[in-house]
Write a structure and sequence with these properties.
The protein is of the alpha/beta class. It has helices at 16-24, 44-50, 65-75, 95-105, 125-134, 147-150, 166-171, 183-193, 214-230, 233-238, 242-258, 265-291, and strands at 3-9, 32-37, 54-57, 81-85, 89-91, 109-117, 140-142, 161-165, 197-208.
């Protein structure tokens, strides 16, 4: 059984050394450790090579989330399974083994993603609650017959830490190489449509902390808005994402009240406004692009 691990990088910083150390501590089942770097100007490539990773360097202008992951899958086509990570994810004990065990046990699962938690030393209460909302404690396999139960969350997945069945990934023709965002959701939706499962493995834990500002949230949601216009079939096939957004707002508001953090509610609503405005702007931009305006 051959298992690869891939990370796309760009200026990962000196802390990237710790990310790779944590991988190497759990790498006994990995046959390949591969990185595509988008012409970093810091020591990312040197750190990766020093830690035993194979590295290819591309021009930053050549990068898309869909393309690098497709290129990695084709480069590691000899692998049975392929783990995707991002450069800012910190593995917790036995995380890799838990992902591998799960997907080997479930042959019709196309992708399985791990549980992301916020490092409370560096994260904030909003990101902590968002992680709790999206990453529960129950192991899941989501399939096409559960669309009414999950709605748009049926294709929720995350390449921050996920494992793919390489044969099934090739069957759905990998990722849309034009995607600058959401390649994980794109692939998960295609697995669902083909009758395969999308797994969630809460025992495979990682720390993933963004510390997004209002501006960061705004920019991120521009990309989400573009993604949903460019892939309008997702909402047509699986329903609107508005109800899920409302559910998140109510969940976070209730959490702040119960936690005695009422003074944070105004800032929370500023975050919701930033996300909404960014999302609508992204939708408008993508609509114009599709019309050739």
């Amino acid at each position: 059984m051959k298992i690869g691990l891939f990370i796309p990088t760009y200026n990962a910083g000196e802390e990237f050394s710790q990310v790779l150390d944590l991988i190497n501590q759990q790498s006994e089942q990995l046959t390949d450790k591969y990185i595509i770097d988008s012409s970093s100007t810091d020591n990312t490539v040197a750190i990766a090579k020093d830690k035993g990773f194979n590295v290819d360097v591309i021009k930053s202008s050549e990068f898309t989330h869909g393309k690098v992951r497709t290129d990695a899958a084709k480069k590691l086509a000899h692998c049975d399974y392929l783990i995707y990570m991002t450069q800012d994810v910190y593995l917790q004990p036995n995380a890799i083994n838990e992902l591998i065990y799960f997907i080997q046990k479930h042959e019709t699962v196309g992708v399985a993603y791990g549980k992301q938690e916020v490092d409370k030393k560096t994260g904030n209460i909003f990101e902590e609650r968002a992680r709790q909302f999206n990453y529960g404690d129950q192991e899941l396999i989501k399939t096409l017959d559960q669309v009414d139960e999950y709605g748009v969350k049926i294709y929720f997945s995350s390449d921050a830490f996920a494992i793919y069945n390489c044969q099934l990934l090739a069957e759905i023709n990998f990722f849309d190489e034009s995607l600058m965002f959401g390649e994980d959701a794109y692939a998960a939706a295609h697995f669902i449509k083909k009758g395969y499962g999308v797994g969630y493995v809460p025992s495979a834990k990682v720390f993933h902390t963004h510390k997004f500002s209002l501006k960061n949230e705004y920019i991120r949601y521009i990309e989400i808005g573009k993604f949903h216009i460019q892939n309008a079939w997702l909402l047509k096939e699986f329903g609107s994402n508005e109800s899920e957004g409302i559910k998140m707002v109510l969940n976070e508001t209730g959490f702040l009240i119960k936690s005695g953090k009422i003074l944070l509610i105004p800032y929370a609503y500023l975050r919701y406004v930033a996300k909404y405005l960014g999302y609508r702007k992204g939708m408008r931009q993508a609509t114009k692009e599709l019309k050739g305006e």
